[in-house]
Amino acid sequence: MFRLIIVGLVLFTAVQRTTAGGNQEERGKTPSTAPAKSDAPAKSEKVVFYDDFSSGDMSATNKDGFSWSRNNRTSVVTMDEKGPLIVWNNGPVRNRPSTKRNWKAHDGKYALRFRYPAGKPWSEQRFTLGKAYPEIWFRFWLRVPENYQHGPKTASNNKFFALWMDGYSTKGDGPTVVWNFWRQPDGNSAFTFSHTKDPVGLGHHGKAKDFLVSPRDRGRWMQIVLYAKMSSSPDVNDGEVRIWRRWEGKKKFKLISKSIGRGLHPSKDKSKPQGWAVGYVLGWSNATYKEETEWLLDGFTVSSKSLLNTTK
Q: Is there a domain that residue 138 lies in?
């Protein structure tokens, strides 16, 4: 009898402490048994730069001096209790759109938004790596616009990502490589590579059909991995570039296309970058969009080693 009373008192006291201390979820804290989703790189990956825009700005850097360039129709956005909010556009701002938007980040609170007004061809985010890399990997999440439809104009190639050494396109001694997407006859988007300063060839190649399909892919998050390797010596054409993708919810990356055996030689002037040094995300849309179109980017990762980790 007395033992039952004592056990009851102990249980009552424990309940009181839980109530007085506050339930972790009620206090806005994540219970330790349910860790939050994170796009942060695994410790085993040799990451040299990572930005999930959790700072709410474009200030992220690394020991080599990685830097984002000025926003060109890009901005850091979030969703708060009142709805969509722009928090950074070449400086801190607090601007709300006049129409309903879904700017929910893939991980955390913030994402980088790319805005293409109807009929306008340019939204681009440039970056400088801070040093030259003979071999480099990129990985990031990209949300396909909720109203995505490849534009009607010709030429129909839109830039997806670009990387170069000492100067963009024909302005450099070294090569520029561009990942592109084109309009197919059925209105969907195919993928291609294009290079400059490549003795093997300069035209679009490595075509992959149905890179983006409307309306199937609208509003979906896809994780992209890009790889670029310059040629090992001036007289050898063994440079290569590749692209992989996995849709959110899928475990494995799928190789979309590759361009191998290329003449991706750096400048003979050793004072210029001897490797990949500068690039941009998205960029010029030759086809333009009929409606205002927005992409979201999150979890931007740079490494000198493979980023095909599928445990994330």
A: yes
Q: Are 169 and 163 in contact (CB under 8 A)?
A: no
CATH number at residue 241: 2.60.120.560
Counting every residue written for the chain, the total comes to 312
Sheet strands (E) in 169-238: 176-183, 189-196, 205-212, 221-229
**Pairwise CA distance, residues 30 & 40, whole Å:** 18
3-state secondary structure of 228: strand
Smallest Cα–Cα separation from 186: which of 156, 223, 219, 146?
156
Antiparallel, parallel or unpaired: β 110-116 and 47-51: unpaired
Q: Maximum CA pair distance of the chain?
A: 93
The string of pLDDT tens digits covering residues 21-74 is: 333 322 333 333 333 456 777 766 789 999 999 999 999 999 999 999 999 999
Surface-to-core class of residue 121, CB atoms within 10 Å of its CB (0-12 exposed, 13-18 middle, 19+ buried) = middle
Q: Is the Cβ–Cβ distance between 270 and 3 less than 8 Å? A: no
Is residue 279 assigned to a domain?
yes
Contact 239, 136 (CB under 8 A): no
Q: Which residue has the tokens 């309306």?
A: 215
Domain coverage including residue 212: 43-51+117-303
- Do 280 and 125 contact (CB within 8 A), yes or no? yes
SS (H, E, C) 63-92: CCCCEECCCECEEEEEEECCEEEEEECCCE
Q: What is the pLDDT of residues 182-237, one digit of tens each?
A: 999 999 999 999 999 999 988 899 999 999 999 999 999 999 999 999 999 988 99
Report yes or no: 267 and 255 within 8 Å, Cβ to Cβ: no
- Is 224 a domain residue? yes
Residue at 23 is within a domain: no
Identify the burial level of 154 via C-beta atoms within 10 angstroms of its C-beta, where 0-12 means exposed, 13-18 middle and 19 or more buried.
exposed
How many structural domains comprise the chain?
1
Helix (H, G, I), strand (E, B) or coil at 8: helix
